[in-house]
Write a structure and sequence with these properties.
alpha/beta; globular
């Protein structure tokens, strides 16, 4: 699928080197189709890395996707050049009147805080409330999934005894669900988090259903029965070396982090990790785009209604 992004975005060079079709704005303007409009609220500190990872996965269908990048106005990123944010990102006040086929809300390294203690929590709540009437389907990732479950349904998060980090096997619980179409009986996905949500709490919300879990990592995918909200507690979008980068960063800080499980060959951080989750990640994003964005969203986004 051709990804349409702002000319000059650094991710373009990386994706083109991987033979991924990225369409320039000028060429896209001459195609007589309506692209899917997706907005990514990027809460990760490594914004350029995260936007590249997500664009890579959004490229894996025949559909044309037009992507806007959103940042919070109430938090200043210290890890991304201000020039990059100014050129490629927008804030909520600039897109409030827009409507989108889909939205992705990323994770964020704020799990040690209560939701209300996060300095952009009120702004995030405003965006999530807006998404009910201005976005057809929203995909929440990691902390973004916990925040969405809490805001929309009152589902709590709980601290883990230690950081859950590594590659874990999962099982589909509703194999016939369109989001899980093509999934193997066991599939792998990365996790990197200090908190979790519980299956019993999700089961207690009648409009939610649990789609996939892990014996070790617990809840993995939950969804609203309408298909308007999806919650993924892991990081299917991570690159081969993302967990290694997090681990080595924490080692350098003297934090004595736990070694990511099932990740480094022979648990040796000097060895290159195997990529065990690429096919699952591609299917997850392709199924979401196809069955819950492209197939369901109205052609005229002005006809969007609340879930």
């Amino acid at each position: 699928m051709p990804i349409k992004v702002t000319d000059g975005l650094p991710a373009i060079r990386t994706l083109e080197s991987e033979n991924i079709f990225v369409m320039a704005e000028q060429r896209a303007a001459h195609q007589d189709i309506r692209p899917l409009k997706i907005i990514i609220l990027n809460l990760m500190p490594t914004k350029i890395q995260t936007e590249t990872q997500l664009l890579r996965l959004l490229s894996n269908t025949p559909l044309q996707v037009e992507v806007d990048l959103l940042q919070t106005a109430t938090h200043t990123s210290r890890n991304t050049p201000a020039e990059h944010l100014l050129e490629f990102y927008r804030v909520f006040s600039e897109i409030r009147g827009n409507r989108y086929d889909g939205m992705i809300i990323t994770g964020a390294p704020v799990e040690h805080l209560e939701f209300e203690e996060v300095n952009y929590w009120n702004e995030l709540c405003e965006i999530m409330e807006w998404s009910k009437t201005h976005v057809y389907s929203t995909l929440h990732i990691c902390w973004g999934a916990q925040a969405g479950l809490y805001y929309h349904y009152g589902v709590q998060k709980y601290p883990l005894p230690q950081k859950l980090t590594g590659i874990f096997s999962h099982r589909p619980l509703l194999p016939s669900h369109p989001l899980l179409r093509g999934f193997d009986d066991l599939f792998y996905a990365p996790h990197s988090r200090y908190t979790t949500v519980r299956a019993d709490d999700i089961a207690g919300v009648g409009v939610l259903e649990l789609l996939a879990d892990s014996e070790t990592a617990g809840v993995y995918i939950a969804a609203s029965r309408s298909g308007r909200q999806f919650f993924v507690t892991g990081h299917a979008e991570y690159d081969r070396g993302t967990l290694a980068g997090e681990y080595l960063r924490d080692v350098k800080k003297g934090l004595k982090p736990a070694l990511p499980q099932n990740y480094f060959p022979c648990d040796d951080p000097s060895k290159t990790p195997f990529m065990q989750w690429r096919s699952h990640a591609d299917l997850l994003f392709a199924n979401w785009l196809n069955y819950f964005v492209y197939q369901q969203t109205p052609f005229d986004l002005a006809h969007l209604s609340a879930d």
